[in-house]
UniProtKB/TrEMBL annotation, chains A, B:
SUPFAM superfamilies: ITPase-like (SSF52972). The active site is at D65. GO terms for biological process: nucleotide metabolic process; purine nucleoside triphosphate catabolic process. Its EC number is 3.6.1.66. GO terms for molecular function: dITP diphosphatase activity; ITP diphosphatase activity; metal ion binding; nucleotide binding; ribonucleoside triphosphate phosphatase activity; XTP diphosphatase activity. Belongs to the HAM1 NTPase family. Keywords: Hydrolase, Magnesium, Metal-binding, Nucleotide metabolism, Nucleotide-binding. It comes from Thermococcus celer Vu 13 = JCM 8558. Homodimer. This is dITP/XTP pyrophosphatase.
Length: 184, 184
């Protein structure tokens, strides 16, 4: 089976292959722009994306969307994490969290798969916002997110370490598990 | 001529009528949801909106989108102003601007009109972010925005005062002026 992953990021495709190769599923990158809507949840964004793309792509495909949700900020930056990273940056988030006691936050990732209809898979990792940035691997807000049960931030982990526990890793695994059942 | 204004806000329709009644154009509210995309500019959001709606609405219609762009924050909150108001609120913006010397900001509004093709009209008002909220009329970030040349915030003005100088007022006027020429 051939499965298209709609993304501009080849690193994500490599990550996905680890989950799908054991199933005999070939993952290929498809670099195609699609509108991401303004919404409160990643599910809404991902669902609109696959439905919008469904008339353009032959065969099964999927895409993903991720965000950082900070409890004390009402879920901000949420689905707008990429934009907020570009404008306010890590410094802006730390300023907003200055003096805030409740540091709880979670990264969430949604995979939307299209095979004639939409199927959504969610992954989540809980943790907290640190007081300052640590580490230099990964991207985005990784340097200020410390997952529960670990003494380091996402940016202090190797890609392999992070992928195992990350929100996207969980979402991809949920998708792969479902596909395994449904390919039988 | 009958012109539909796609909005959930009856107050906006009343404001628009002042510009179009003198032209013999009847403005009617059409309450219809449409996807607002994630983008860097209001123009992109508004353009996607009218094109998306164009297959559903008979006859000419328009919609508008507005945002507050703060220079020192890289344009934040921009097209996401409504979301940021709901999550971070005025307090969050003031916190981000704490100790920031450059207070320059502008409100921008884009009207997108569809008559078989799209026409965009932009209005803008320049000003600055105050150090604290003042006034209670208007909505959103009005209490912390002081337009250039005035000693009060948008929230300290009456609706009539604000409409004359506001970004949306300018965009509606540009649209009405264009329509007047093109109805001849």
């Amino acid at each position: 089976m051939r499965l298209m992953f709609v993304t501009s990021n080849p690193g994500k495709v490599e990550e996905a292959k680890k989950y799908f190769e054991p199933l005999g599923v070939d993952v290929h990158q498809l670099h195609l722009e699609y509108p991401e809507i303004q919404a409160d949840t990643l599910e809404e964004v991902a669902l609109f994306g696959v439905e919008w793309l469904s008339s353009m792509i032959d065969g099964p495909f999927f895409l993903d969307d991720s965000g950082l949700f900070i409890d004390a900020l009402g879920g901000f930056p949420g689905v707008y994490s990429a934009y907020v990273y570009r404008t306010l940056g890590i410094g802006g988030i730390l300023k907003l969290m200055d003096g805030v006691e409740n540091r709880r936050a979670h990264f969430e990732s949604v995979v939307a798969y299209w095979d004639g209809e939409a199927h959504l898979f969610t992954g989540r990792v809980d943790g907290e916002i640190t007081n300052g940035p640590k580490g230099s691997s990964g991207f985005g807000f990784d340097p200020i997110f410390k997952p529960h049960g670990f003494d380091k931030t996402f940016a202090e982990m190797t890609t392999e370490e992070k992928n195992v526990i990350s929100h996207r890793g969980h979402a991809l695994k949920a998708f792969a598990d479902w596909l395994k059942e449904n390919l039988k």
